[in-house]
């Protein structure tokens, strides 16, 4: 059996786990790949327990929307949101988290504030419709009218005043929020997606520099976890594409097989939205910018976290040609997600025909990993598959390490540790493996 | 200045930070407290930046619903959800996370599946209403009809089949999910709350033992983070209170000043909901229970995480009488949240009239803490308040430690560390403080 690397990117190794991490970048691309890459990616999402089976879910996921996620999808999203959150918090001390309601309108307390009552009355009065048409139109109106938020920006603008006391009315500062928001889709129903939003309030004098600052920082962040960083890129938004009210904009996009899609929008919004939200009362919203009282300018930085899951999955999926003993060629799919993002860090296996003692050692070690905060996969749920089949499965799931507890482990305390990225097996003593994984994860965090 | 403890509970100290942790339990209750405890709690939520200002938010929060949260509320909820998640995952290896849509109906793909079209037609046909009445009734119908989920159970029951392959059709296993769900409230609009749900599929033979198992484990969990654990209690649900389809139930309740409220419901639901969800096709949903193929029984364990935030805030709020220099009596409010839950672990202050050098040291240390994953508060945003006033504020926010970087720090590298729970100040070298906090947090996690 041999694996043929055809493209190799070297990265500097800083520590003892450098050998593993560098190997993430040994990339093999199958040149004559007849499979549709989009279909393969979506199949992998389902096979690897990222996305629930069913066309409706893979369709939603491909469109950058929330779908029903499986155990690995849930963990990947959690890891991504955690990284986003800590990066935003660490980038500036004046960033504060908030959370606002997804439903309702706090001013009126009504459930459907945007429901157009006038429109409804017109429909009820109109003579040109028969009964069925009228019912249809009313239903359509309802689906369009919504009490569900369509962005996170508006909530932050409304909450701006509440947190002025906290920052002693001093610029700049930011309000960060992650959560669902809801977009009406073509059919009149609504699709949900998870967004991560930073609304940054700054001096009008420096708003353009701040936009550049955040665009630079954010692109760095996206690329930090990428296997092929160049697939993530940023570009200035043309004047005719600008969101209403925006004077400048930057997009961070990802090159999917079917074209570029936007992962993140950065807008320089001026002060008009903030003024409008607070009824134009300048005195209420003014802040010190170090020199004088000003109405701040608003920079909005918002990422679609569902689409970013797919971007990282696509970015880290590698196809490798592999020959088995009989020189039969087949393809190995490996999801080389960044160690920090990988939903499962280690899978624990026992092999077929495991004894009760093996199972006990396996369960004990699993518990030790979970207690240490290491996301571990209970291989003991599948005791019928061969080791080879399990490794193929774990590679598709993006599991960093596989450990096998065999009969030998019971005698000598030594187990086999296989790395996803190198496919190399090493023997380690059972007392060392937790420490090894913790050091590995610490190094990966500092990469 | 002296603080009079009137009630002291001792806990075993296991390590070097035991002294700090034990002091969390030195409780002083003011006996003649004329302030309404509910009002005081809600005021504290706003003053401590947990809940956004405004009656509408404190009202929602008191009712155990989502409201607009401030920076500390966001962190507290995150910490709570993280603890719930890791506890559920650690408790059993066969627990898998899922996430399901909050909107829509996956079968029909419609936005408003539950909208009662027949009812709408009746309203359109009815002669007994005038125009205004008809519009009103239609609006009411809309608000009642919803495409938003009202619980997390149904999603897990629907997803059950998708994850059978994952567990090789072997019982028991569980599907865990956290997220928003939406309850119609009295006014016809909808209130949202964050729930954490475990749906446990098990053999019919052992479902009653599993209910007891989870009820015991969950109560332990609630009490683990409590200052006064006895305020959290569990009780069997009476037959007339049982949820439809449930054969048994257990409630975990908290004693608020205004009465008991339910934090968590545990239901033993039999197999009827699962059968109904899958059209009664037994062959599709059967699993091995170790002996034979059975239709599993369902245990539902669901907690309201918004209400649990309030429970822990109430549980950890302590009032202490304090005399100032002139023997004037005033009350000190301290939010002694468990170190694991406390949203801010350390606040960094500089005192009034800080030099540029002090600020640089302060910012550097703050960055060091944030990089190490320690939630730190930038005291530099408030440089006008006195140290005494800041400490009062930090106690209300539940900040574990306050560190002051003064002129002396620049010369000797020594800073003052004040503990929330002991109010004792200690000198520590700046090179030690990060290690101290990390050891403290590790010990708190293992408590």
Low-confidence spans of chain A: 1-19, 25-32, 105-114
The residue-averaged pLDDT of chain A reads 86
Most extensive interface: pair and counts?
A: A-B, 78 and 78 residues
Can you summarize the main beta sheet of chain A? 7 strands, mixed
Number of strands of chain A: 18
Helical content class of chain A: 25-40%
Query: Which structural class is indicated by helix and strand composition of chain A?
Result: alpha+beta
Distance between the termini of chain A: 32 Å
Please tell me what the overall shape of chain A is. globular
Number of helices of chain A: 15
Quaternary state reads homodimer
The Rg value of chain A, from CA coordinates, equals: 26 Å
User: How much strand content do the residues of chain A show?
Assistant: 15-25%
Largest sheet, spatial ordering of strands of chain A: 3-4-5-11-8-7-6
Protein name (chains A, B): Polymerase (DNA directed), gamma 2, accessory subunit
Domain Anticodon-binding (chains A, B): 357-438
Pfam families (chains A, B): HGTP_anticodon (PF03129)
Describe the structure.
- The structure is a homodimer of 447-residue chains.
- Chain A is of the alpha+beta class.
- Chain A has helices at residues 18-23, 37-47, 55-62, 71-91, 117-125, 131-144, 153-159, 207-224, 272-277, 282-285, 305-316, 356-371, 387-397, 407-412, 433-445; strands spanning 7-8, 26-27, 95-97, 173-184, 190-202, 232-236, 248-256, 259-268, 287-288, 293-294, 297-304, 317-323, 329-335, 346-349, 376-378, 401-404, 414-419, 425-429.
- In chain A, strand 9 and strand 10 form a beta hairpin.
- In chain A, helix 4 crosses helix 11.
- Chain A is globular, with a radius of gyration of 26 Å.
- The model of chain A is unreliable at 1-19, 25-32 and 105-114 (pLDDT under 50).
- Chains A and B meet through helix 4, helix 5, helix 6, strand 4 and strand 5 of A and helix 4, helix 5, helix 6, strand 4 and strand 5 of B.
- Chains A, B: One of its GO terms (biological process) is mitochondrial DNA replication.
- Chains A, B: InterPro entries: aa-tRNA-synth_II/BPL/LPL, Anticodon-bd, Anticodon-bd_dom_sf, Gly-tRNA_synthase/POLG2.
- Chains A, B: This is Polymerase (DNA directed), gamma 2, accessory subunit.
- Chains A, B: Residues 357-438 form the Anticodon-binding domain.
